């Protein structure tokens, strides 16, 4: 229960990654939870094998990215707490986004198959707005984590967050 409270406070920007446990067991548990929930979310949009590959790859890339960014800043000792903070908050955001993703899935699938994308009926406005709001909330949380972990300003935290998202887009675009 203490850990859940820390994650909630982290997501409300009241705590930083330095307040998260630094042990490997918690890190692995959070990474596994993140991967499983990401698989469930992506599985709403694509076949299970592709969703599993995407979830595993995103999880591994996040760990590698965090390790690299911390090493560049010469702060590798912060890896466990930073990665735990990112995986735990990412898992929580993904859990929250399962319902909106489920509601958005028919629209996204129809959009992918349509010859005229403008002919596809839009999803309900509240679903779209929830996606946008969660995206901004996630950006704020991850930027907060990176800012604290890197002992940097807000803009470096935002840049680190956006750079990871661009990396994911590039990798998944190349993989198809």
Q: Could you list the spans in which at least 5 consecutive residues all have pLDDT below 50?
A: none
Helix content: over 70%
Count of DSSP-assigned helices:
6
- Shape assignment: globular
Secondary structure tally: strands: 0
What does the main sheet amount to?
none
Structural class: mainly alpha
Cα-to-Cα separation, first versus last residue: 40 Å
Q: Proportion of β residues? A: under 5%
Order of helices and strands: HHHHHH
Average pLDDT number: 94
Radius of gyration: 17 Å
Layout of helices and strands, plus pairs?
Elements: H1 2-11, H2 24-43, H3 48-72, H4 79-113, H5 125-149, H6 154-175
Helix pairs in contact: 1-4, 2-3, 2-4, 3-4, 3-6, 4-5, 5-6
Describe the structure.
This protein has 176 residues and is mainly α. Helix content is 78%, strand content 0%. The protein contains six helices and no strands. It has helices spanning 2-11, 24-43, 48-72, 79-113, 125-149, 154-175. α3 (48-72) runs antiparallel to α6 (154-175) and α5 packs across α6 (154-175). The radius of gyration is 17 Å and the shape is globular. The mean pLDDT is 94.
Structural features:
176 residues; globular
């Amino acid at each position: 229960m203490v850990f859940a409270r820390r994650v909630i406070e982290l997501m409300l920007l009241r705590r930083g990654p330095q307040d998260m446990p630094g042990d490997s067991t918690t890190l692995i548990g959070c990474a596994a939870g993140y991967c499983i929930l990401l698989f469930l979310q992506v599985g709403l949009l694509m076949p299970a094998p592709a969703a599993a590959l995407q979830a595993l790859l995103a999880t591994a890339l996040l760990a590698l990215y965090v390790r690299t960014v911390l090493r560049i800043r010469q702060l590798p000792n912060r890896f466990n707490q930073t990665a735990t903070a990112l995986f735990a908050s990412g898992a929580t955001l993904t859990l929250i986004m399962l319902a909106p993703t489920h509601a958005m899935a028919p629209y996204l699938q129809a959009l992918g198959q349509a010859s005229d994308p403008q002919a596809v009926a839009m999803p309900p406005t509240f679903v779209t707005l929830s996606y946008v709001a969660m995206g901004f909330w996630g950006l704020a949380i991850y930027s907060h984590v990176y800012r604290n972990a890197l002992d940097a300003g807000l803009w470096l935290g935002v840049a680190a967050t956006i750079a990871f998202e661009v990396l994911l887009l590039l990798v998944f675009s190349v993989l198809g």
